[in-house]
Amino acid sequence: MQVPATSTVRVLGTMLLTHEYDHKDICVMGYPQEIANNSRQFTLKTTDQKHIQVVLSQPIAEHLEGMVQVRGKFDGQRIQAQSYNMLLPELAADFDDNTYNEAVKILRSNE
Amino acid sequence: MNRRNQPKLTSGAIPAIIGNGLYSETPVLQVLGYKSLQGESNDRYRILISDGKYSYAYGMLATQLNPLIAEGKLEIFTIIKLTKFVVNKVATKATAGKDQKKIIILLDVEPIVPGSEVGEKIGNPQTLNDVGEVSEDATVNSKPAASMNYSKPAPVSKTGGYGQQAAKSDVITHPIVSLTPYQNKWTIKARVTNKSDIRTWSNSRGEGKLFSLDMIDETGEIRATAFNAECDKFYHMIEIGKVYYISQAQLKAANKQYTSIKNDYEMTFSQNTTVVPCHDDTSDIPSVTFNFVPINQLINLEKDSIIDIIGVAKSANDLRVITSKTTNKELRMREVQLVDSTNTEVNLTLWGKTGEEFDASSQPVVALKGVKLSDFGGRSIGTVSSTVIQINPDMAEAHKLRGWYDNGGSSSVISSISSARSSGTGGSGSYKTFAEAKFENLGGGEKPDYYNVKAMVAMINKERALYMACPSEDCNKKVIDQNNGLYRCEKCQREFQDFKWRMMLSVNIADATEQQWVTCFQETAETLLGRSADEIGRLKDTDNAEFQKIFEAATFKWYVFRLRVKMEMYNDENRLKTNVYEVKEVNYKEHNERLIRELKEMAIAE
Predict the structure, then answer these.
(1) pTM for this model (two decimals)
(2) Could you give the 3-state DSSP secondary structure of residue B205?
(3) What are the Replication factor A C-terminal domain coordinates in residue numbering (chain B) (predicted)?
(4) B319-375 pLDDT tens trace
(5) B592/A106 Cβ within 8 A
(6) Which of B275, B408, B519, B606 gives 20 to 30 Å between its CA and that of B489?
């Protein structure tokens, strides 16, 4: 999907659930769980262990595995995704959730 | 009481006392009168004493004995035993240029026979002048009544101007703030707050020795220096913390570069200078005042500032002897790690004797007045000749620090603003930004420094990237093209039919703070370009397009560079040479972890 570049805020699942970032352009990383039957929705288990629904405007054409980075808007219940990137398992294997979570918290700490 | 039963006066005692100040026996004297000198709080009494043969007008009653006057126990003609006394030499306006006046301070007296019983002056004592010689007979007050006392007519104020009366003694002292080179008949009463070591010098104009001292009174402070003969004369006698009467020194414009003392003038002791310990009340002369800067504020101050600081010496390095590059002299120094309750640590360098004698094993509180702030290693402080150091001083800040340190301060997370330089290639070395490396003057010391930096390749110099090198196994020297198919190596002293391509890349790398030109040799160059020197050498002449592409592809990539920096001299100019010791791909996980750690240390993150 081609999306014009906008400034997105990188957040964690917990941050979305506080509703502080509702209707804002956000970016979340996590592990794709089940994909819905219509291929337009899937559950993302974020790096800080929260399960969040992701809805896409078009059905997913590939098999989601490894890690996914989703960009879109959180409406309070689901992420309306504008785009996503997949990180193949070989690369994702090295990913350290904890330091990533820490880094994101630091980035958001002065806002 | 019959006259014959009265104790005899110790005839000749007074000249003996004034003469050499020693008198092992307790003289019996007679009071011939007294005068009160008005002071601020306390009266001071001047006693006219006689030993039967000689009388002296300069006996001062120690203030703790004032009640004796009030009780009428020292009325005129009283015979007293002088059980404790001391002789002081004082320079005054009147004695300027002559020998000093001697004052007998009566520290303890015992009235034996009341004046009313004696009723008259014993003998016909001759008056001694202020140096103990017989002078013309001064008229002495011989009225029998005991109530004869009159105060000196001079005004009482102590501040400002010339010739003001000193409240506590017969000496007229001048405020330090009033001293100028244009008037040299003065005496000051000041406390020595600092005394330097004796320093010797030797230059084309000669040699000599000197020491300096700082003094303070209620009105201000001033620095004084004693050279050669005066240096010897006064060095051992002057003690820090004691109060002295000083007069007859030269005043000249101050050289503010060497001291933080606030005075437009400074003193030089001359042949005529007198320094007399003051035993009078010195409570109005202040002691050293400090203006401490918290360690975490040092980063905000400019380098070369002179400041006061207090902290706990949590550790110290061993004493080091280094040779000064500029003077070739051997200097002794010790580095001490100082922390305070802002949880910040700074390196303190103690030079000379202070460093030699310093012992940090008890982790003492150290207070310093007048240390120099430098930007070495970030921020560090060092003593200068005018620094005053107090170990475990009895002051509120020191007690607070002791309490903080002993109750957890010692184990709290401390951030150091004097980062240690990574020595040698051992260990992975520390990460710096180019700005930090510049700030810390890495490479400026005697040994090369190593540091890591995450930087991006901004530009590679293509033109001089390659050179023709000797094909011998262990020789990499550049060969000379003889232009006849042969290549000569001067090192091997041989000619070869071929050569090998070697690279020496001049690369400009940049991080978020600054950019730096660095040199990459064969191995690191091949890593950056992703090709061997041989290949690149061949492509240069055969496929220029490909050659260019290789260099383009190599730019704008991030790496972690391990750099070796050293300042080198080229034709009288100092240049910082930076070589790439190693180049590695960025491990973003490690990078992330390091950034988080550094942020935490900077206490921005929680």
Answers:
(1) 0.42
(2) coil
(3) 450-595
(4) 888 877 667 778 888 989 899 988 888 999 998 888 888 888 888 999 998 888 887
(5) no
(6) B519
